[in-house]
Amino acid sequence: MSTTTDASLSSTMPPPVDGQLGMQALSERTKVNLTGVTETLLIPLLGRAADSVTERPILGDPYAKGVIEKLDYDFTKLPMPASHAGAVALRTRFYDRWTSAFLAAHPHATVLHLACGLDSRNQRVEWGPTVRWIDLDLPEVVELRRQVLPVSLPGRDYQLVAADITEDAWLKEIPTDRPVLVVMEGLLSYLLPKDATGLLRRLVETFKEGEMHFDSMNAKVLSAGNKQTKVAVSQTGAKFQWAVDDLKDIEQIHPRLRLLEAVRYVEAPGVEELPVMTRIAYYMLTWVPSFRDGVRFVRFGFSDDAPKVGSG
């Protein structure tokens, strides 16, 4: 799934699908039958692939291009200018690095990657045999993923789970014997407020300790994003639903939940690698409080003594 941070910078430039990315014969590709929110998973996939074929990629995902070449889908319907591809790559790299840092500190951990889509984070990030990695998404997404990405990783404790995260049953099947990292890139903003807060609450109540990494939108940017008609998300019919203006409100969801770190998208390390006009636009947005805090990458910890070391 995807959240778009620079909707105001959108253009109708078609993505580089037929040329730089290349395509297999139509008969050899896997048909994509996703709509609405599930279809948005193709946006970050396209962004990662477009970034990977640039002269100086930000993320340099070595797998996204190959996945796109296996899909029977009209990617020209999803606008992906350089500004958006760079923004997707920057966000994904941020979560990759946070994941690596968590695993360095917790070599015996569980990684729970919710709404994994067609992301190859489990191959980009280094992790050893003492880590348990679980990718999870809706059944129709998992069915597609099984056809274009590995369903097992030799020598690794890896599982691919099909489930609806808004329900309770799946969480009862996840082992709770280790610290857990829950990665939810581009997910929560699409959920109804009650589903987003309910998911966070259930995660904290299920596991003894760990972290949750996700991005949040404030109400101003959420509203603006839903009004855009020329950005990729609008082409899927999906709408953003959960807005967070004050990150302290998330701490109120459960007494064990603590904000560890918050990074504004427009000020995130790596912004200087984006196209020059995007950098200028981001700099201008930093002077407008409602847009400066429009999208934030956040790390929340949960344990009886989780320290509060940052705010945003």
From TrEMBL:
Origin: domain of life: Eukaryota
Keyword Ribonucleoprotein: no
InterPro entries in alphabetical order: Ppm1/Ppm2/Tcmp, SAM-dependent_MTases_sf, TcmP-like
Keyword Phosphoprotein: no
GO molecular function, one term: methyltransferase activity
Pfam families: LCM (PF04072)
Alphabetically ordered keywords of this record: Methyltransferase, Transferase
Gene Ontology BP terms: methylation
Name this protein carries in UniProt: Uncharacterized protein
Taxonomic source organism: Xylaria arbuscula
Taxonomic lineage of the native organism: Eukaryota, Fungi, Dikarya, Ascomycota, Pezizomycotina
